[in-house]
Amino acid sequence: MDKLITCLYRRPSATTRLICFPWAGGGSIYFAQWARLFDESVEVYSVRLPGRESRSQEAFALTMDQIVNEVTHTLLPKLHEKAFAFFGHSFGAFTSFATAVTLKEKHNLEPVHLFVSGVSAPHSKSRSSAVKKSELSDEEFLRYMSEAGGTPKEILQNKDALQMFIPPLRADLRVVENFIFNKPENHILTCGLTCFDGTEDIPHDLDAWKDITSGDFNIHKLSGGHFYLKDPANEKQLVKYITKYLETAEMDYL
């Protein structure tokens, strides 16, 4: 499991595990460090995808199924131990959602809450009209990275650093651009679902996420752009919201 998961703060007595899925091109360390902001009731697992960090020599995942199958196979024993929730930002929102659907359909398991951030629902019509960023020229791709934010200027200005940073980002974008999900006729999950977004990010179709679940549905917008969550004040606010929803879900779970 240590190949897939980074857990910097082990909390055996935690009542809930929060499993975090990275944004496109992202590693596991950012979300693994979130654990310091939660109390002892929450243990944070952060997913490390192939092609980055200690898995840098592995080939990037080519499909969403490939990611979901590895996460599901590796975590399944842990998911039976205690309540768990998913959090995913942008690309990570789709990988966490796809994993939740597979767990529900194949193992009759689902998170007590699904937190998605910075992205339209997978079946939203807005996705079909979006430009395929993975196919942009190098110049256009750098402009996209700069406008999206979240990438330190020293990386954007360093060609050697970019050669390491761009390949996993392009690979993840290809995965999500080829991920097709049609609007479900019926709700496919029953857990609560909360959307987070930056007030200055491009508009996202957040309302469509409520087609996914019969559980409680909420939307919270915090100041900032696509990487609003990196702001320390927003981090604290996110943790506050997540903790509140997990406490409510835990009572229902028990």
Automatic annotation (TrEMBL):
Residues 17-243 form the Thioesterase domain. GO terms for molecular function: fatty acyl-[ACP] hydrolase activity. Pfam families: Thioesterase. It catalyses: (9Z)-octadecenoyl-[ACP] + H2O = (9Z)-octadecenoate + holo-[ACP] + H(+). Keywords: Fatty acid biosynthesis, Fatty acid metabolism, Hydrolase, Lipid biosynthesis, Lipid metabolism. GO terms for biological process: lipid biosynthetic process; medium-chain fatty acid biosynthetic process. Its EC number is 3.1.2.14. It comes from the Eukaryota. InterPro entries: AB_hydrolase_fold, TEII, Thioesterase. Belongs to the thioesterase family. This is S-acyl fatty acid synthase thioesterase, medium chain. It comes from Xenopus laevis (African clawed frog). The lineage of its organism: Eukaryota, Metazoa, Chordata, Craniata, Vertebrata.
